[in-house]
Amino acid sequence: MNIMRIRLRVPSDGEENSRGLRGWFQRLRGSFKGSPAGLKINLCQPDKRWLKHGNARYFFEGRHCRNTGGSWQSEYVFSVLAADELQQIRVILPEALITGWERRQDQRMSEEHRLRVARETVETLLGLRRFPASITVSAETIDAVSKT
Hints:
This protein has helices at 20-33, 95-105, 111-128, 139-146; strands spanning 51-53, 56-68, 71-82, 85-94, 134-136. By secondary structure, the protein is α+β, with helices and mostly antiparallel strands. The chain has a domain at 51-146. It is flat, with a radius of gyration of 24 Å.
């Protein structure tokens, strides 16, 4: 029979309580919550990977596939830097609309084409100076991008 022993460190008189592992996680979480007053942290320095559109810059972060309510959708995540504010926009492409496009065109929609639809949607939003947290692309938008 193997016996496992756990040693716990108990604070001495006058010593600050370290609160163990839970305290370590709380201190770690607290370091991400914000900065002291007057200290401005720049989380994002746009570089050559960022694309410019009007007065804004945007960067493609990545794509996520989700099953929402029994139907699949792809979420394209973009970081947008506009008016000195960093925001995130999620462009949602429902797979049901993509499947409909593929049937009408009698071809498979490539990942490059999907990304182009998402990018053009973000550029349209930037042109309108609208920054929603997420937007679902319509079938008309998908068809309009495919004609160009």
